[in-house]
Amino acid sequence: MNMVAKKILSAKSFRNSIYLDFEGRKSIDGEDYPLPHMAGIFRPNANGKSGVYPVIFFKPRWKPAKNGSGKHAILADFNEYFSSLIEELDHQEKHIVYWTQHEEKMLEKHLSSNTFDNLRPYLYNVHPLAKRYANRLKKFGPEGTARKKTLEEFFSVLYRKRKPYPPLKNGPSETCQRIDRACANTQRWRNFTERQKEYVKALLAYNEGDCRGTWLIAKKVGNFYAT
User: On the CB side of 17, how many CA atoms lie within 13 Å of its CA?
Assistant: First the structure.
């Protein structure tokens, strides 16, 4: 259970946070939370609604996907990457914010126990607070409820005038497996077919949408509870 989620972060703290979303394949034959293929990390700007979106790939074989993903993409060891964030989180009073318990379960499963214990105080699941906010303001209608609503559904009712972020036609699990097959055939981005390149671009667009959507929901919720 995430103990940090019981408190409400300030609007300033939400802006100062790092927004995390993992992508990977589904479990196979009872497998317990397979290692994510990648993570998107969204860092809001000091003002406004935009920010910077770095991408971290955790599969060494995904080097060609990294090479085709722009200057903010890196390959990294899972444990080393999140361990390196702890000093920043501590010194700059930041949190890692995410939409559901899935992200925390991934961290608990794949980080060393020492790294996870050190990271735990900075983890914040914004979903319970967003549900509380939506229900209080009846965002899903007078008889509706935020229960079982997706991130996309939350975003659509909280930001009705904004275009929705792009969906992922084949879903993240299938898309990751297709990129796996492409990387197994060649370690050069230039040798990817246009369709294979599109799988990478679509996955990143989808992941960035989830990261940005989580940030914008947190921003609205944080501003509401700050008043």
Answer: 27
CA-to-CA distance for 159 and 139, rounded, in angstroms? 11
DSSP label of 37: S
CA 87 – CA 85 distance, rounded (Å): 6
pLDDT tens digits, residue range 134-167? 999 999 999 999 999 999 999 999 999 999 998 9
Q: How far is CA 28 from CA 31, 33, 34, 57, in A?
A: 5, 9, 9, 21
pLDDT above 60 for 179: yes
For the chain, where are the E strands, in sequence order? 18-23, 38-44, 51-52, 55-57, 73-75, 96-98, 123-125
The answer to whether residues 226 and 21 touch, using CB atoms and an 8 Å cutoff, is no
pTM: predicted TM-score of the whole model, two decimal places:
0.94
Phi, psi dihedral angles at 101 (to 5 degrees): -65, -15
* Distance separating alpha carbons of residues 174 and 73, to the nearest angstrom: 21
At 127-141, the pLDDT tens digits run: 999 999 999 999 999
